[in-house]
């Protein structure tokens, strides 16, 4: 069962407005119609403003959902935690200011798991409300898929952008580490937390990221370059569901038929060693980032997070420093991945969205790439045996975000033509 | 004119308490006596709690001043800005939690320049109230020098720990970049902002840093190793005041007489090139970090900061990215500095504290080392022609904080024996 594809294209809306065929207010009203119709089922929002009014700039008329780990001066910001119920920040997070400055309208705050970690919120998958939308950026991904807003902001510390994008059948873009500021975000792990984007398509995500940052990130639709893909074969591949393995094979065939080279990439040893470095880095930092909440308000934490922080507080600085060294070695070794390819092609998640609302799924295919800080883009368009979306991620070297977006855009187009 | 040296030793206090010769409450009461006597002159605090009560742990009885750019749940936090007058954060900054967990008592919030940048607060130098205490961590440095608290927390983005430590004649320790978390600090520049410590002596600063982090940072008093120092000779050396040049020469003689080797180090070209990278990185990031304040509350910013952010908003991502690349090259090249020495020896500032309260002095001797993320320790004990303190800084490779502290402790001891 697949819901009608309702995601709205930010680029198309901007073009309609620029061409005088639609007003910015009409574009926002169109979002409001979808929200009023489906929000009671999807539950993507923690807060909605009473009215959506357009700004001025290249994103005028573009409604953007903001994951509720980002501060907003005019909307309550709860970080997915009972501790912050009715919390009113003084200032917007930097990325919220960047969006407003470009003319975007904040569509509302979107559901996050508790402190963007594990304990899920109420959001449902628009393709089937019995399934998780993924997390931790649950409301941002689901809201784009449901047509509530053409773009949304999320964060990824493990797999919190790429996985929900895949589960909801939309594009997800996790930029290179620290390309977008985390200022005004409630942080969990300062070496891993990464700000990113959701949109209907890769080009739409790139358009919004470029418009708010002034960076040359926009996808060039006229570019005829055919990417060289590398399939990263690793010991965790046995965790792919059969339909995900089939999807990876299908995408390979489609890419090859369209003229791309697709070759296997053997994992450099330092990268595979680094898989185990993610947890101690994340958890040591979480124990410090949430030290106050853990010390003073343990009863207001979920039992799972409280237990996790109890354990994390015993990670020694030596263990943490060793994990950071391991990650640094892997970052250097990651350059070797691209000697015979432009971008890596991997599953975004083990399979389709699990049929549960008690978990947001598994970030096993994401954590290493978050740790390495490399740009990842989830491409939609393929479906699993149950008819739910399957996502594939494109990964480029650190700092080569435009390359990742361009290659992902190319693959998305070929899948769309062939699927 | 030199004020009586009133700085309290954190290590001595802890030893007195451990030995049963003083209670933790008595140690805190001793601070309160100094505060009540001299705060009206020094003006180190933005807020003081009504009572100082001891905690439990290795820092029980140790009062710590907290620069007012760090959130505290129980004290107003103003970031040196009119925008945040009466601001009450929900949670403590991570470093505040770390101190409380180790038993420290928060002595109060200390004066910072506006957002830890330029516009000074009212704090005066305890050695001569007509002179600046330095900044931006003005109240933290002055409060240690005045005996208000044996230790304090500050931040350095340009020279905001090392310079005020030098001007106030106390020890300042700027750790390796990101060794201490900036979570819950109002950030100005996320690639530069560094959390650090002030105390009466280098060993005292190391003691507090070790106690709150669980890291092996404490100075080993029994260590007989004699460091090899390198004097970093650079084109900006002509900005040293004559008495600072004399002090550097005097410290060299003292170190040599005590058996240390002191050799000149020729600046690697990538380091000198990187001097100009500090400003675009700091300012591009400040324009994003303070985007909300700049957009919505320009009238509540100082004219100088408003103009600065106006200009900073025009720095392009390309200029910023190039500056980051230049800094990365310099970080790699900085390893070459230590082929013939263990630690560098440089002025902490051009001279003694200027006779003004309208400026906090010049960070010209600090910015490069903040940019490179290397640990810096300011050593007191020498005085200028006007009788005010002069500071020398010891710098070690990134991540070698213990080496920097140990070498600085050694030099401090020799200066104390000879001055």
Explain what you see.
2 copies of one chain form a homodimer. Chain A is an alpha/beta fold and 419 residues long. Chain A has a single domain, classed as Amidase signature (AS) enzymes (Alpha-Beta Complex), CATH 3.90.1300. In chain A, 37% of the residues lie in helices and 14% in strands. Chain A has helices at residues 10-18, 24-42, 94-101, 138-145, 162-168, 202-213, 242-257, 269-274, 278-289, 291-296, 303-312, 317-333, 367-372, 401-418; strands at 45-47, 63-67, 105-110, 151-156, 171-174, 194-199, 228-232, 261-265, 343-347, 376-383, 389-395. Chain A has an 11-stranded mixed sheet with strand order 1-3-2-4-6-5-10-11-9-7-8, sandwiched between helices. In chain A, helix 9 packs across helix 11 and helix 9 crosses helix 12.
Q: Topology, please?
A:
The structure is a homodimer of 419-residue chains.
Chain A: H1 10-18, H2 24-42, E1 45-47, E2 63-67, H3 94-101, E3 105-110, H4 138-145, E4 151-156, H5 162-168, E5 171-174, E6 194-199, H6 202-213, E7 228-232, H7 242-257, E8 261-265, H8 269-274, H9 278-289, H10 291-296, H11 303-312, H12 317-333, E9 343-347, H13 367-372, E10 376-383, E11 389-395, H14 401-418
Parallel strand pairs in A: 2-3, 2-4, 7-8, 7-9
Antiparallel strand pairs in A: 1-3, 4-6, 5-6, 5-10, 9-11, 10-11
């Amino acid at each position: 069962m697949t819901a009608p594809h309702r995601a709205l294209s930010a680029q198309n809306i901007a073009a309609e407005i620029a061409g005088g065929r639609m007003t910015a207010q009409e574009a926002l009203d169109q979002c409001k119609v979808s929200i009023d119709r489906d929000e009671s089922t999807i539950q993507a929002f923690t807060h909605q403003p009473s009215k959506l009014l357009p700004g001025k700039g290249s994103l005028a008329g573009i409604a953007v959902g903001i994951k509720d780990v980002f501060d907003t001066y005019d909307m309550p910001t709860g970080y997915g935690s009972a501790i912050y119920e009715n919390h009113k920040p003084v200032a917007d997070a930097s990325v919220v200011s960047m969006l407003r400055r470009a003319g975007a309208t904040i569509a509302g705050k979107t559901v996050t798991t508790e402190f963007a970690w594990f304990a899920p919120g109420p959001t449902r998958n628009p393709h089937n409300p019995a399934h998780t939308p993924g997390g931790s950026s649950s409301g941002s991904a689901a809201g784009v898929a449901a047509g509530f807003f053409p773009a949304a902001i999320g964060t990824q510390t493990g797999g919190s952008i790429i996985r929900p994008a895949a589960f909801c059948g939309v594009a997800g873009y996790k930029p290179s580490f620290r390309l977008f500021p985390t200022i005004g975000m409630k942080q969990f792990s300062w070496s891993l937390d990464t700000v990113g984007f959701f949109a209907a398509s890769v080009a739409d995500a790139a358009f919004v990221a470029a418009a708010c940052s002034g960076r040359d990130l926009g996808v060039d639709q006229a570019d005829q370059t055919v990417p060289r893909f590398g399939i990263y074969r690793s010991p965790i591949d046995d965790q792919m569901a059969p339909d995900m393995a089939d999807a990876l094979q299908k995408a390979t065939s489609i890419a090859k038929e369209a003229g791309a080279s697709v070759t296997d990439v053997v994992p450099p040893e330092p990268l595979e060693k680094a898989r185990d470095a993610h947890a101690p880095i994340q958890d040591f930092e979480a124990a410090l980032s949430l030290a106050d909440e853990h010390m003073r308000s343990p009863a207001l934490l979920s039992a799972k997070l409280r237990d996790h922080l109890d354990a994390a507080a015993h990670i020694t600085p030596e263990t943490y420093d060793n994990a950071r060294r391991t990650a640094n070695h892997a970052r250097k070794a990651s350059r070797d991945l691209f000697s015979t390819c432009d971008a890596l092609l991997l599953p975004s998640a083990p399979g389709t969205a699990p049929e549960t609302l008690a978990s947001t799924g598994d970030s096993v295919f994401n954590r290493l790439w978050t740790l390495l800080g490399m740009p990842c883009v989830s491409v939609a368009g393929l479906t699993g045996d149950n008819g739910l979306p399957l996502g594939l991620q494109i990964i480029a070297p650190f700092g080569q975000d435009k390359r990742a977006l361009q290659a992902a855009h190319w693959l998305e187009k070929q899948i769309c033509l062939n699927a």
